Amino acid sequence: MRFINRLADRYRFTSQEIKVILFFVILIAAGSFYKLVNGTTPPSQQQNYTKQDSLFFRILGDTAVKTPSNDSLFNSSDSASGMAEIKKASPHKGNIPEKSIDINHASVKELTLLPGVGEKTAEKIIVYRNQTGRFSNVEQIMEVNGIGEKKFDKMKRFILIR
Fold first, then answer.
1. Which residues are registered as beta bridge partners of 102?
2. Predicted confidence (pLDDT) at residue 142 exceeds the cutoff of 90
3. Statement to judge: residues 108 and 159 lie in one domain
4. What is the pTM of this model?
5. Sign of the torsion formed by the C-alpha atoms of 72, 75, 77 and 78
6. Which domain holds residue 134?
7. 145: Cβ–Cβ under 8 A, 6 or more apart, which residues?
């Protein structure tokens, strides 16, 4: 108790304030000791969730959070202004698995995941599919107005025919 009174007199704190400060110092020291003893997970044992993330964004559809370059959720410290980073078009076109979009059954949202395919082109694909029937092979998608060889080359590895 004398130790606390000497600290209180020296730094002009009340004895109650000194007790609170000492409590936090002891708490920080105990936490540091615990972390030192138990350590953290080594990088080799950390899990890679990129596959699950791509499935999540695929299910999420056309409202996905834009991934900022500084690895924080928002570029702004204010979360309200950070909400402006949400965009309607899917930013994850490059992350879809190969052979994952069945053009005979895909919706507009799913078709827009293909590289080079926007909403209008996706609607054209569905109109073509409804008029002519199912696609019999992958190359047949080039018959859709607006899809040429260059666009087809970008998207063909993601297209599936069932």
1. 160
2. yes
3. yes
4. 0.44
5. negative
6. 96-162
7. 124, 128
